[in-house]
Amino acid sequence: MDTDQYLEVFLDESREHLQAINDNLLRLENEPTEIDIVQEIFRSAHTLKGMSATMGYEDIASLTHQMENVLDKIRHHELEVSTKVIDITFSAIGALEEMVQSVSDGNDGKKDVTALVSQLQELENGKVATTEVSLEKGEELPSLSIQLDEYQSTVISQAISSGYHPYQITVQLNEDCVLKGPRAYMVFDNLEKIGEVIKTNPEVEEIEEGNFENTFTLLFITSESKETVKKTIERVSEIHHVELQDVSLEKKTEKKENETTQSSEKGKQEQNKPKHSKTIRVNIERIDGLMNLFEEVIIDRSRLEDISHRYHDQELRETVENLARVTENMQGMMLAMRMVPIEQVFNRFPRMVRDLSKELHKKIALEIEGSETELDRTVIDEIGDPLVHLIRNSLDHGIELPEARKQSGKSEEGRISLKAYHSGNHVFIDIEDDGAGINREKVEAKAIENGLISPENSKHLTDEEVYHLIFASGFSTADQISDISGRGVGLDVVRNKIESLGGSIEVKSVPGKGSKFSIQLPLTLSILSTLLVNVGNEKFAIPLSSIIETVALGDKDIKYVHGQKVLDFRGHIVPLVSLQEVYGVSGQSEASNSAVIIQKGDKQAGLLVDSFLGQREIVLKSLGNYLKNVFAISGATILGNGEVCLIVDPNALVK
Predict the structure, then answer these.
(1) In angstroms, what CA-CA distances link 597 with 294, 529, 607, 648?
(2) Higher pLDDT residue, 142 or 622?
C-alpha cells in the first residue's frame, strides 16, 4: 500500500492526538480519580496506535500500545494514578512527539523505545489496586465489553418480549486488511437491512474511521436466525471470523433511583448528540494558493479603480465600486481562513512549565488567558520559539526558589501569566511573572562592561531604558549558563524575530515584584493597509499600523539639534528622517514640507516626504532571495497603474 498520500493527514491528526493527551494528562494530575479523563486519553492513544500501525511506524505503534495497556488498567480501577505514572507517560509522549517530528522531517520515525516500554510494562504489571470494578451504569451483558444504560436495556427487553433476537456479534477482519473503516461500514450497512444495531465497542464513529484493531463487537436486534445474520456479514470481503452469541439480561445490582435516572438521561443525550462535523480539513498550501490568486485580484482591482477615475463613465464607476465592496468582503473571509487560534502555540506551555519547575526545584503555576485569540498562520508559525524563550527566561531568572520567596513574604508558589488579546489591527501577548524583577544595577554593570553605555550616561537613563538593554546582542546577566533559558543566547534573538514579523516588544519591571514582557504583532502579514507617499520620482508605502499622524511642515517647524533635523511634536522632540536620503532616490525633490510621524514602542520619528497620495490596501510581496535584508524595506507591491512600489519598514527607521 502506498501510504505517502495519507502522510499529511497522519501528521496532522497525530499532532492533534498528542496535544490532546498532553492536555488531559495535566488535568488528570490535578484530578487523579476522574476516569472520564482517562477514557479521553485512552481514545487518543488508541487512535494514534491504529494510525501509526497502518502507516508502518512500528516504534510509534509499540510504544502507544504499551501506554494504552497502562491506561486500560487505570480505567478499570486496577492501577492508581500516581506521580510516577504521570511522569513516565509524559516521557512516552515526549518520545512519540520526537518520532512524529522525525516522520515530518522526512525520516523513518524510528527510535529506541525499549526502556520506555519496559517502564510502562512495570507499571502495568505492578501491584494491582484491591478495589474491585464497580459498575455505575445500568446493566452489563455477561462476558461482554459492552455496557448498557437503562434506556438501551429497556429496548432489548421489549425486543425479546416481541419475539426478536438480540445477538452479541464479534467481527474479526483479516490481519492484512488495510481499509478497515470501509469494511466495517459495509458490515453495518448489510446488517441494518435486516435489523438494528443497538451499541458497539468501540464507538461507531471510531469503527467507521478504522480506529480499532482487527476486531469489533456490536449488539444487534433482528427477527432473523443466527445463520442468516452470519451469512449477511460474511458477504463482505476480508472478514476472517464472525461469532454470534445469544443475549439475556440479568440484573447485576440494584441502583439508586436518581443514579439510574442520570444514566438514562446521559444515554439519551449521547444518542441525540450530533454526529456530523461542520468543518473540513484543508491543506494549508491550497489556502496559500488561493490567497496568492486573490492578491492578484486586489492588484487588478486597484488598476480598475485608477482606470475608472480617468474615464468619466458612470456605469464603469458604479461597477468598479461594487467590485471593490465585494472584494473587500472576500478579503475579510480570505484573511479569516488564514487565522488560527493562538491556543495551538499556548498548548505546549503547561507541560513545559511543569517539567522545568521540577527540574529547577521551584513551585510555579501557569495562568493562560485569551488562547482563543486568532493570528495569521504565518505569524503563528514564527512566534512559538520567542515565547518559549521568554517563558523559560521567567522560569529560570524571574521566579525565585520557594525558600527565597518565603523569606520575601511571598507564597512559595510563583505565578507566570500568559495573556493574548486583540487591539485594533494588532494582537498583544503579555508574559508576566511575580518573581524578583530585573536588577537595574546588575544590568547597568553588565552593559558598561560590554561597552553598551558609559558610566556617565547610565545615570541619566530611565528604568525602562536600562531594562531595554537586555535585548542587546549577546547580553546576559546569568551567573551560570544553563539549558533552561538559552545557554547564554540573549534576548536579542527574541527581539529580532518579533521585529521581523512587523512587531515590537516592551519590558516593564518592579524589583521584588516581577516583570512583564509585552509583544505587539500585526494580525496578518499578507495584505496591509498603507499610506502611499511621493518621494522624488518614487512612490513608497508606509504601513498604517506604525503611523501616528501626518503633519504639514512650515519652515519654522524644523529645528536642528547637533546637526540633526528635529520637530517639536506635541511637546516631544522627534528626529526627522529624509526618505530621499535614506533610499538614495533620484529626481528633483520638492521642498519636503510633509512628515509622517511613526512610532515604535515609546520612540518616535518623522519621515520627510514630498506629498501624500492617500490610503491603499496593498499586497505584500517578498523581494526574493537576491534582495534579502535591504535596509528599511520589508517588501514591495504592484500598484493599479502597474508600477512597483517599495514598502517601508518603519521599525528600522526609529532609533
Answers:
(1) 32, 16, 6, 13
(2) 622
Cell of 311: 474615464
- Pairwise CA distance, residues 243 & 168, whole Å: 8
- Length of the chain equals 655
Q: Which residues are catalytic?
A: 46, 68, 393
* 393 residue type, one letter: N
8 Å CB contact between 536 and 591: no
How far apart (Å, rounded) are the C-alpha atoms in residues 386 and 373?
18
User: Chain centroid to CA 31: how far?
Assistant: 25
Angle between helix 83-104 and 114-124 (nearest 10): 150
Task: Collapse the DSSP code of 418 into the 3-class scheme (helix H, G, I; strand E, B; otherwise coil) and give the result.
Answer: strand
Q: Are the beta carbons of 568 and 503 closer than 8 angstroms?
A: no
DSSP 129: P
Alpha-carbon distance 283 to 539, whole Å? 37
Among the listed residues 147, 23, 126, 22, the one whose alpha carbon sits nearest the alpha carbon of residue 80? 126
Which of 119-133, 374-388, 425-439 is predicted least confidently? Answer: 119-133
Region label for 90, one of left (φ > 0), alpha (ψ between -120 and 50) or beta (otherwise): alpha
- Closest residue by Cα to residue 617 from 640, 600, 597: 640
Helices within 136-225 (DSSP H only): 150-161, 180-191, 204-208
Residue 131 has pLDDT above 70, yes or no: no
Going by the DSSP 8-state scheme, the letter that residue 595 receives in this structure is E
* Terminal alpha carbon distance of the chain: 60
Q: Which residues pair with 564 in a beta bridge?
A: 561
User: Distance between CA atoms of 149 and 139, rounded to whole angstroms?
Assistant: 7
The residue type at 34: E
Tell me the three cell numbers of residue 625: 532571495
Question: Dihedral, CA atoms, 189, 195, 198, 199, nearest 10 degrees?
Answer: -40
Measure the CA–CA gap between 415 and 433, rounded to whole angstroms. 6
Helix, strand, coil distribution of the chain in percent, nearest 5: 45, 25, 30
Tens digits of residue pLDDT in 217-239: 988 898 888 888 998 998 888 88
238-269: pLDDT as tens digits: 888 898 888 766 543 334 344 444 447 444 44
Q: Is the pLDDT of residue 525 over 90?
A: no
- Indicate the helix (H) or strand (E) that contains 605: strand 603-609
Which has the minimum average pLDDT: 73-77, 80-84, 90-94, 249-253? 249-253
Dihedral sign for Cα atoms in the order 472, 478, 479, 484 = negative
Kindly state the cell numbers that stand for 393.
527566561
Closest CA to 485 of 342, 347, 352: 352
- Return the DSSP state at 63: H
- Using CA atoms, how far residue 385 sits from 26, 507, 632, in Å, is 22, 18, 24
| d(C-alpha 407, C-alpha 598), whole Å | 46
